[in-house]
Amino acid sequence: MDDVFIDAFFYGNDDEANKRFRQRLLEEQAPQEEEEEREIAIVEVDFFVPENNAFGNSFRNYQDSLRRIAVEELYRTNHAFQTYEFAMAKKEEYGRLEKGVMSIWECCELLNEYVDESDPDLDEPQIEHLLQTAEAIRRDYPDQDWLHLTALIHDLGKVLLHPAFGGEPKWCVVGDTFPLGCAFSEAIVHHKLFVANPDGRNPEYNTKLGIYIENCGLENVAMSWGHDEYLYLVAKGNNTTLPPAALFIIRFHSFYALHQGGAYTYLMNNEDKEMLKWLHVFKKYDLHSKSKERINEDEVKPYNLSLIEKVRSTFIEL
Ligand SMILES: [Fe+2]
Ligand SMILES: [Fe+2]
């Protein structure tokens, strides 16, 4: 970890010093005059969703996983406490983006310390997962640079686990996400554990549509709080130039009830249906982590830094 990250948190609770530091970083990365236009956008090609990813794997094996019991415990807490009000409060708190300023690459490195216990297949540090996902997508979709970058950053919201970001417990950072404000679908993993969730007894929230109208669009749906939602807020708050499909992947990649279970389609609008196909592609790579093929961080770093340049987000406010 280098000096910038250390500085970002060095000022601790000194608000004035923090403000000055953030201002300096943001000014440093502001585009100087009219730069030559750099774009990161979807390239029109014949669309395909692979059976398996570039490493030949497709996973999500809860049955044989040694982590099965730990995973169930995580969902026991998650399903009891993820209520509409809880998620709204977290969104309000973290949406202010007052936790720090750091570069995207530093943020990737920060995740080195964490392994995602909710993932039955994954026992690599998070940065390895990010690089493997990005490299595997890059092999199969060489022209879609936006997708490579999306893969690189998709789990950065897991910094919520870090003490500097509140040291949030795993049950509200990792694991599957789902809509709040309407009935919990049986397609959600460990659905029975929702019996402990007060929203399930609230007549305002426990019908099929709940507080929503049919085909209202997923953008208008409140999701359970976790790393997906947090990074989505960060990307929006930093005015990312990533295409809408990238934001869709970032926000819904843990929404398995939708992209694997086929539930909640009645909340989708036509735009969501269009973007769902990219999420189907992405999940093939997000789940490849049993691969023991290690990525050489130094080798892939220059390419990834060049992508980060393209979205003008060397430093981000979190
Ligand atoms: Fe994730
Ligand atoms: Fe992931």
TrEMBL record:
Gene Ontology cellular-component annotations? cytoplasm
Q: Does the keyword Oxidoreductase apply?
A: yes
Q: Could you confirm whether the keyword Thylakoid appears in this record? A: no
- Name the pathway: Polyol metabolism; myo-inositol degradation into D-glucuronate; D-glucuronate from myo-inositol: step 1/1
Could you list this entry's UniProt keywords, alphabetically sorted: Ascorbate biosynthesis, Cytoplasm, Iron, Metal-binding, Oxidoreductase
Gene Ontology molecular-function annotations: inositol oxygenase activity; iron ion binding
Q: Please name the InterPro entries in this protein's record.
A: Inositol_oxygenase
Name the residues that bind substrate. R60, D116, E117, S118, K158, G175, D176, H253, S254
The record's catalysed reaction(s) read: myo-inositol + O2 = D-glucuronate + H2O + H(+)
Q: Where in the cell is it found?
A: Cytoplasm
Pfam families reported for this sequence: MIOX
Extract the signal peptide range: none
What's an example GO BP annotation here? Answer: inositol catabolic process
Q: Which residues make up the binding site for Fe cation?
A: H129, H154, D155, H227, H253, D286
The main place the protein resides is: cytoplasm
Q: How is the cofactor bound?
A: Binds 2 iron ions per subunit.
- Listed EC numbers: 1.13.99.1
Enumerate the cofactors the protein uses.
Fe cation
**What family is this?**
Belongs to the myo-inositol oxygenase family.
Name listed for the protein in its UniProt record: Inositol oxygenase
Organism, by scientific name, is Sesamum alatum
- Tell me the classification of the organism that encodes this protein: Eukaryota, Viridiplantae, Streptophyta, Embryophyta, Tracheophyta
